[in-house]
Design goal:
Number of strands: 25
Structural class: alpha/beta
Low-confidence stretches: none
Strand content: 15-25%
Number of domains: 4
Shape: rod-shaped
Largest sheet: 7 strands, mixed
Number of helices: 24
Radius of gyration: 47 Å
Helix content: 40-55%
Length: 742
């Protein structure tokens, strides 16, 4: 018992340690790299599973692709061409807004040779004055002004980048920041840049706005899953390209910041939770990052080649009224990122996904409170498995693991799909698996041995299903004696002696084996324990070695099933014509001594006590009253779901107090009005009989005999009444029949 207790403690300790380890991981006290990696894999799978295939008709991508480079020359293109491109987009195609995923940090120093040759020709042939010639030449060298003029008249957002590296000189200029002072709640968590690459001051001044297009947030596996909407530089706050585009669409609405309490092992602090832009609410993490809501595994936006736009080959309806992002996918120019949906994903389409996701309200997030929710989930699952798994068999434990895991996955997907919350999935699933493996280890190496031990101890006494149930229980079963409230059954075959005398030994053995097999099956089916076989009699009990709170009901069900199962034996070829077989069964409930009893030569697991002796006496009385089953009053009280017929009050051998005998008629739920009427009349008949009102008692029992023809109990009472009418009983007679003599 001490060994079993020690193993249970070890199993509990190891399981508790596993739960504590996973909880520490969630609290960032002890990171488990495997969990982080699996969580990212499951995140990617969930993202791909939810990714749609429908193209977003609000955003289009103007692509500087290989075709464009072949048709228009190497990048960067002249400012005149860029100015013409802007004119085409707004004047011909009617786009709503244009954003650049490229930067113009250097002035255009290229000279159009055809235009220069024309100026020289004019100087030589048309005698242009010095000032006119210089003006013509200056226009060739100041193409940025032309580009700036095109920008100034249109809703155009330029792009720029930040860098984590220090730089002595930053090309270009930065746009006006959102704020020149970063709130303290944001500054501790926002990314801090050290240098930048901006656009020419002339271009930046002419543009409607600008946003940074690079992201410093690549995960440990090199995959891009989230992008920041804000970056701080030298104490000022700057917006990303998607946020700048949305602000331009909303006519420059100011960005609002909503903070909340964080969660963590060192207590919570104020941190960013939501950005507000007009009616738009953008859920972000403390670093202002959003999880990129990839629309599709393939291209989720309409792509138009830049050269086709320049030459008017793209249908107008393909771009009309749309937000257009200009970016490059040509080799050597493109900024491709490994993402959950593709190993080479264009950076410009990442911005398009963020813009579309914010407009749709489809941005997923990990709010600060989710850490507390995940911790509660791990602790709850740990407690559930610690209480549940040790009580289950391997098959049931596996099924429980699958059901609990399915529930965890379902909750996770509901949080993702309905609430837009990203919750870690690997942590609870791997913890459940680890706890399952620990329980399997102890179940295989310990519980299997325990089951074999119990099988050796009780396999000859109790049904296999009880041995299985005992092996799953934490109780330590042994042969030691103890007192328990139990139920005992004695049954004997009536008429078997006469038949046995007329059968040869071989056939007699076959018949008795068949009968005892039927009896044993019914006892085992009702969770009973076979005590012993005594010729054509069987002794069994309920409530040991496995405690059974319903031992009385189970025993009574077995008794009724035995008598019913024995009826077909009367038509057996060996029995037919030799006599009638009936089973007499006596049952009693009470306190008994149970354990391994006997001598040093032979032992038996059995029950003893006055309650056992009474059951044996009751079995003997079944022949006297002509019924199959007799139970005691204690049995009747312990099994209230059954309907009983009172038989008599008797004195039995070994007892001074009278015993009331009952015959079970079946379950109360099957009671009919006829049976109810019979029992009412029987109660009146017993009352008249015990009060010596012989005429009344005789009339009532005769009436009962008409309800139940040739019933041996009612015939017995009529016979007694006839005798008492001729020879009345003594004055002290109280209606108790004495069966205790002899």
């Amino acid at each position: 018992m001490l060994r079993s207790h020690g193993i249970r403690i070890a199993r509990f300790a190891i399981s508790t340690l596993i739960v504590a380890l996973f909880a520490a991981h969630l609290l960032n006290w002890a990171r488990i790299p495997l969990l982080d990696r699996v969580d990212k894999i499951l995140y990617d799978y969930r993202l791909v599973l939810h990714a749609g295939s429908q193209e977003d008709n609000r955003v289009a991508i103007l692509d500087i692709d290989e075709k464009s480079l072949a048709g228009e020359g190497h990048w960067p293109w002249s400012r005149e061409k860029m100015s013409f491109l802007i004119d085409m987009l707004f004047d011909y195609y009617g786009v709503r807004l244009l954003a650049f995923d490229v930067v113009f940090s250097e002035p255009d120093r290229g000279i159009d040779l055809d235009a220069a040759e024309k100026v020289v020709h004019q100087v030589l042939t048309e005698s242009l004055g010095r000032e006119a010639a210089m003006a013509s030449l200056r226009s060739l060298l100041t193409k940025d002004k032309v580009f700036a003029e095109s920008l100034a008249r249109r809703p155009v957002v330029l792009g720029y980048f930040f860098s984590p590296q220090e730089s002595e000189k930053n090309p270009g200029v930065l746009p006006r920041p959102l704020t020149i002072e970063v709130p303290y709640a944001l500054s501790k968590h926002l990314y801090k840049a050290r240098s930048y690459g901006g656009n020419l001051a002339e271009l930046q001044g002419a543009a409607h706005g600008a946003g940074f297009f690079n992201t410093p947030f690549l995960d440990g596996d090199g995959t891009l899953r989230r992008v920041p909407l804000l970056i701080q530089y030298q104490g000022a706050l700057y917006e990303s390209l998607p946020l700048a585009v949305l602000r331009a669409l909303m006519k420059g609405d100011e960005v609002g910041f909503e903070t909340g309490k964080g969660y963590g092992p060192r207590g919570g602090d104020e941190r960013l939770e939501t950005l507000s832009l007009g009616e738009l609410k953008i859920r972000v993490d403390a670093a202002s990052a959003v999880l990129v809501p990839f629309r599709s595994v393939a291209r989720g936006f309409h792509y138009a080649s830049a050269t086709d736009v320049l030459n008017g080959k793209v249908p107008r309806e393909a771009l009309a009224g749309k937000v257009v992002l200009l970016g490059a996918t040509a080799a050597g120019l493109s900024d491709l990122y490994p993402t959950p949906v593709s190993g080479n994903y264009p950076g410009v389409e990442i911005h398009a996904n963020v813009i579309g996701g914010i407009l749709d309200g489809a941005i997923k997030s990990r709010p600060a409170y989710i850490q507390g929710g995940e911790l509660f989930q791990v602790l709850l699952l740990g407690l559930l498995t610690l209480l549940l798994f040790p009580r289950l068999q391997v098959g049931a434990m596996t099924l429980a693991l699958l059901l609990i895991s399915a529930l965890v996955i379902a909750v996770n997907f509901v949080l993702w799909d309905r609430l837009g919350v990203d919750s870690h999935l690997a942590t609870p699933l791997l913890m459940l698996t680890a706890l399952y493996l620990v329980q399997m280890f102890f179940g295989y190496f310990h519980e299997t041995r325990r089951k074999k031990r119990l099988g050796k101890l009780f396999g000859h006494y109790v049904p296999p299903q009880l041995v299985e149930e005992m092996s799953r229980s934490d109780e330590d079963y042994a042969f030691g004696g103890e007192s328990r409230q139990m139920t005992v059954l004695f049954c004997d075959i009536r008429g078997f002696t006469a038949i046995a005398e007329r059968l040869p030994p071989g056939k007699l053995c076959a018949l008795i084996n068949q009968i005892l097999t039927l009896v044993t099956k019914e006892i085992h089916a009702a969770k009973g324990t076979i005590d012993k076989y005594m010729g054509d009699a069987v002794m069994a009990f309920w409530g040991a070695p496995m405690p059974d709170p319903d031992h009385a009901s189970h025993a009574l069900r077995a008794a009724l099933a035995i008598t019913e199962a024995l009826r077909p034996i009367g038509d057996h070829p060996l029995v037919k014509g030799l006599g009638t077989l009936r089973m007499g069964v006596g049952l009693n409930t009470g306190v008994m001594n149970v354990g391994n009893m006997g001598s040093e030569f032979r032992m038996a697991y059995t029950v003893m006590g006055d309650a056992v002796n009474l059951a044996s006496r009751l079995e003997g009385l079944t022949k006297e009253y002509g019924v199959d089953v007799i139970v005691s009053e204690q049995m009747r009280t312990a099994a209230p779901a059954f309907l009983y017929r009172e038989l008599d009050r008797v004195l039995v051998k070994g007892r001074k107090e009278p015993v009331t005998l009952y015959q079970p008629l079946g379950l109360k739920e099957s009671e009919t009005p006829e049976v109810t009427r019979e029992l009412v009349i029987l109660g009146r008949a017993h009352g008249a009989y015990r009060a010596r009102r012989w005429q009344e008692a005789e009339a009532l029992f005769q009436g009962l005999l008409r309800l139940r023809e040739l019933d041996p109990v009612y015939l017995l009472y009529l016979k007694r009444i006839t005798g008492f009418k001729e020879m009345p009983p003594p004055e002290d007679w109280s209606g108790i029949q004495d069966h205790g003599k002899g």
